[in-house]
Amino acid sequence: VRFVESGGGLVQPGGSLRLSCRASGFQFRYTAMSWYRQVPGKEREFVADSSSSDDSTKYADSVKGRFTISRDNDKSTLFLQMDSLKVEDTAVYYCNSRGATLPWGQGTQVSVSV
After folding, report:
1. Higher pLDDT, residue 53 or 96
2. Which stretches of 1-114 are assigned E, i.e. beta strand?
3. Do the beta carbons of residue 66 and residue 15 sit within 8 Å?
4. Burial 91-112 (b: 16+ CB within 10 A, else e)
5. Which class for 20: exposed (0-12), middle (13-18), buried (19 or more C-beta within 10 A)?
6. When you count CB atoms within 10 A of the terminal residue's CB, does the N or C end of the chain come out lower?
7. Are 20 and 7 in contact (CB under 8 A)?
8. Rounded to a whole number, what is the largest CA-CA distance in the chain?
9. Residues in Cβ contact with 77 at an 8 Å cutoff, skipping those fewer than 6 apart
């Protein structure tokens, strides 16, 4: 099992980024997938979730209305479109299965700063 996250970077408040997570080693299309994020010194937290069985999605209250999760099952890739970014969105972002049952990837750093 392997996750390769990419797309992070430095952006000003109000800006946008699109994260990608390329997954391999398991049946991605049949697996509910989530994005998580972690700030140094704090626990990793849930950001967004994408169901495997339908188009349903869930979001943490802190990102609802600003972030959009999507997936391309043919390419085993999970996406996170992040708009209206805030300073408090600064973190390392990771993808994993729902409930984080698989090994973590290296994550991608998102920094929001003036």
Report:
1. 96
2. 2-6, 9-11, 17-24, 33-38, 45-50, 57-59, 67-72, 77-82, 91-97, 108-112
3. no
4. bbbbbbbeeeebeebebbebeb
5. middle
6. C
7. yes
8. 40
9. 20, 21, 22, 23, 71
Whether 54 has a pLDDT exceeding 90, the answer reads: no
> 49 and 34 in contact (C-beta within 8 Å)?
yes
Q: How far apart are CA 102 and CA 20, in angstroms?
A: 17
pLDDT (0 to 100) of residue 53: 87
- β-strand partners of 94: 36
User: What is the pLDDT at residue 55?
Assistant: 87
Distance CA(31)–CA(44), nearest Å, equals: 20
Distances (CA, A) of 33 to 10, 11, 90, 96, 114: 25, 25, 21, 6, 32
- Has residue 19 got a pLDDT over 90? yes
Average pLDDT of the chain? 97
One-letter amino acid identity for 21?
C
